[in-house]
């Protein structure tokens, strides 16, 4: 028999004391909470597509477009100028073997037997397209064009935007076996526009909006929108 005043038996259908999480886990989840991950999955897949290779292809397209337009006025340029990837190792097995004896080498003529022969055209091709100095200058041209694309972007209209969705759910105990659930869905978005003029003046515009909806409670929804525009003109160069 339990000593009086130390333990108290609960009725069969009564709830545990407040703070016990066993009964809160038995509450049915809101349908919106189950559908929210599925709604956010396409957005996550879209963001994951902006990988490093995506930005590299974007940069190559802009840079090689500039180089291609300028190379038309330079004599002797070819398609190899539009590629900075180092060439693969030379395949010596594809070269023709020497079948003649080199008598002028005397006793060491056997060294040249079955040796690979490199023609004049192949020798010039190897000397140019596999030259480290030549490959380094090609990379320098690429980086110069890449900096030009950054300057063009800075002096052109730049638009950006973002947003987010936040869902919170709260359960409050109100008496025995009585819970009140409050669900809140909050969304926010912002759109910006930035333009740098040739005089150094910068025009920036921002439009943001917040929307909050309460599924239970006295206030059904709240919204707030803001717009701002800024025009700045430096008086000194570099300021």
Helix and strand topology:
Elements: H1 31-48, H2 52-71, H3 120-129, H4 132-154, E1 158-173, E2 179-196, E3 202-214, E4 221-232
Explain what the structure shows:
- The chain is built from four helices and four strands, in the order ααααββββ.
- The protein folds into two domains: 52-154, no CATH class; 156-239, no CATH class.
- The protein has a four-stranded antiparallel sheet with strand order 1-2-3-4, with no helix packed on it.
- Strand 2 (179-196) and strand 3 form a beta hairpin.
- The chain is elongated, with a radius of gyration of 36 Å.
- It is α+β, with helices and mostly antiparallel strands and 239 residues long.
- It has helices at residues 31-48, 52-71, 120-129, 132-154; strands at residues 158-173, 179-196, 202-214, 221-232.
Number of strands: 4
The SSE string, one letter per element, is HHHHEEEE
> Major β-sheet, in short?
4 strands, antiparallel
Q: What is the molecular shape?
A: elongated
SS strand fraction: 15-25%
Helix run count: 4
Which features characterize this protein?
disordered N terminus; 4 strands; elongated; alpha+beta; 239 residues
Please outline what is shown here.
The chain is about 30% helix and about 25% strand.
């Amino acid at each position: 028999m339990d000593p009086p005043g130390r333990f108290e038996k609960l009725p069969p259908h009564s709830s545990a004391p407040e703070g016990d999480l066993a009964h809160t886990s038995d509450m049915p989840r809101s349908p919106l909470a189950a559908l929210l991950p599925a709604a956010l999955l396409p957005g996550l897949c879209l963001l994951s597509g902006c990988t490093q290779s995506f930005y590299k292809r974007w940069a190559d397209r802009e840079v090689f477009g500039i180089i291609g337009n300028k190379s038309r006025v330079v004599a002797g340029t070819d398609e190899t100028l539009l590629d900075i990837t180092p060439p693969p190792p030379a395949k010596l097995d594809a070269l023709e073997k020497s079948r003649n004896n080199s008598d002028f080498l005397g006793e060491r003529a056997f060294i040249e037997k079955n040796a690979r022969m490199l023609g004049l055209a192949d020798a010039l091709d190897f000397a140019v397209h596999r030259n480290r100095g030549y490959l380094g200058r090609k990379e320098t041209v690429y980086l110069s064009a890449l900096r030009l694309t950054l300057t063009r972007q800075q002096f052109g209209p730049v638009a950006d935007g973002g947003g987010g969705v936040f869902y919170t759910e709260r359960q409050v105990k109100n008496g025995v076996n009585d819970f009140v659930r409050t669900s809140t869905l909050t969304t926010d978005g912002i759109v910006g526009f930035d333009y740098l003029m040739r005089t150094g003046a910068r025009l920036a515009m921002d439009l943001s909006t917040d929307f909050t909806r309460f599924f239970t409670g006295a206030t059904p929804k709240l919204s707030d929108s803001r717009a701002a525009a800024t025009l700045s003109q430096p008086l000194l160069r570099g300021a």
